[in-house]
User: Fold this.
Amino acid sequence: MVGREKMSGKKIGCLCFFLTAALVFLAFGQVTHAGELRILIKEKATVTGDTIRLGDIATFTPKGDVRVSRFRARKVAAAPAPGRNVDLNSRFLIYRLASLMGGDQQVRVKVPQNLLVHRDGQVISEKKMTDIFKQYVFSHSPWDRKEMELERVRVPGQATLPCGHLSWDVREKAGGDFVGDISLVIFFSVDGRLYKKVPVSGRILVNRRVIKTARKIRKGETIDAKDLVEVTEKSMRSCGTEMQRLEQVVGKRAARALQMGQVVKREMVEIPPAVRKGDRVIIKAENSSVAVSALGKVMEDGRSGEQIRVINISSGKEIFAKVIGPGQVRVAF
Assistant:
């Protein structure tokens, strides 16, 4: 019996509170008493920050009342995400505003059945993100802009951020040479505060010059200009060891058999020896005052600048000499 009486008392107390609140907040009388402040809550309001304050959703009469500035700054609720809405019903508003009034009997508030609050934001379009991607890639790439072709850019869609000063920073997911598939992350900040990270990817093709064989070339064969053709082609790879100029290949010999139309790489060719095993050469020995020469026989192939074994034909002695050109070697003296 006692429990029922206590429960009834609680119910009666709650009912009295809401009835009183309804009278105070919903009865917006025509008679204005001296010193009374009237607050009218709007049916629709727009905010820009993270918080809905009373000043964002209400009008005050009279505007010159000393309490207005204090009430305007009071927080009603958290704002929705940028670009989104939140619907506040009359029951929430009555409950929340009752606590904000602080028991001031000279305040009258009129509350609508529902208040729709929209939060403004700034939209970062897909085009904006694509432009940021292009600017970063083209300004950081080692390639000539005229040689680069942007095949595609992928962004996850537009983003809505809070109002304020927008800034961004771009970082690479992995270092590279800006050719082929490229992944970046754009860090967007508003008023210096980081709000969103957006992954953006794209594909860059490079118009590069390469040297290809015009015929089949056997291993060890010396390569002539007529054996090659210079072409420009689109690629998703950097040049690597591929030859780009005819003069890099002409006069060298094939280090392996090359098929017709094959791209020539650095490791596929080698400088031919200036002297070959069995060749007869002039052995030179000289200093600032004396110059001596003798006839020699080469014991192994040698390129210019290499040290090879040579036999002095007149003495029969084997020596080491430096190849200085076709048919010539030099020894220290």
Q: What stands out?
A: The longest strand covers residues 193-213. The radius of gyration is 43 Å.
